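Entry — protein

Goal — fold tokens:
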Amino acid sequence: MNKSYAVDPDQLQALVAREVNKKMLLIYVIFGLFALLFPVLTHFAAISFLPTILFALIGLLCYASIKNGTQNLAAALQITFTDNAVIKTHNKGDLDGLTKASMELNSMRHGQKFDCVIPFRKISNLEIDENGIKIYSTDADIFNDNGTIKIPKEIMDYSEILTYVKANPEIYKMQNY
């Protein structure tokens, strides 16, 4: 099978919403606690609501930035199945400058790789859940997702990919699917 898949434009917003909510959970908790605790700690003085408003604005800026980056990455995602590997790439021409810079920064700081090639001989495990398929290599890193390819259910022809993967359990090291 030599075929490439991209995210379905009609389902892009559903994928972005799910991924943004996952990424924003910690920010929601932190900024929510600060916004609630600051007025309590200052005994509801009139000035105490200014930092609360500031926390809310910073939270909104974080949300907008994460949503924009996630949307760019999702729109540029390409999953390719070849005769001997699964490849995840991002079409760099579809990314804006801020997302490209963020990708380079994460690569330098944390060693995170946004593009990934997993040869069939290096596949260690495959998981299928309600959000899609996750393929893990023997080199998978749980801290920065290197060596992991996530195929979202919003990708075009997802049912075709699912059928192909289930038809080849010896390649994808599947158990009980």
In short: The chain has a mean pLDDT of 86. The helical segments are 12-41, 49-76, 97-110, 158-167, 169-172. The chain is about 50% helix and 20% strand.
